[in-house]
Design goal:
Blueprint: H1 5-27, H2 47-82, H3 87-104, H4 106-117
Helix pairs in contact: 1-2, 1-3, 2-3, 2-4
């Protein structure tokens, strides 16, 4: 049986990044000027919405990253065992589904921000530098 380590790395990269982000943002929130953070209109309205958005996004990233990692590993190993000629195609489909799932994380997080702050987030409370 031929096992491709690059395909395994490609299929696990996005879920691992989601897990790392989820645990990092659980421990400490990113600065408001950070390049890698959750920047949306609702999330940037105040310090409260910023913190809430990152806590919510981090929790969902941890959950979804773990599920995606487990499903990806099972599908990838199954493809290597039963249809090895299609493993590269299956890997590409997995990566596309993972990327789409990351984009779709925005919807429930934005909905949670809206529901928690009633659509009227507090005014800016941070100082611009």
């Amino acid at each position: 049986m031929f096992f491709s380590l690059p395909l395994l790395c490609a299929a696990c990269l996005l879920p691992l990044i989601m897990l790392l982000l989820g645990f990092r943002w659980k421990a400490s929130l990113p600065a408001r000027t950070a390049k890698l953070s959750y920047h949306t209109t609702l999330a940037c309205k105040s310090d409260e919405t910023w913190a809430f958005a990152h806590r919510c996004f981090a929790a969902r990233c941890r959950t979804q990253g773990a599920v995606l990692l487990a499903v990806s590993l099972v599908l990838l190993f199954a493809s290597f065992l039963f249809i090895p000629n299609w493993s590269s195609v299956i890997t590409m489909v997995l990566v596309c589904v993972q990327a789409l799932s990351i984009l779709l994380l925005i919807l429930p997080v934005e909905n949670a921000i809206y529901n928690n702050f009633g659509g009227n987030a507090p005014a800016e409370t941070h100082s611009a530098s």
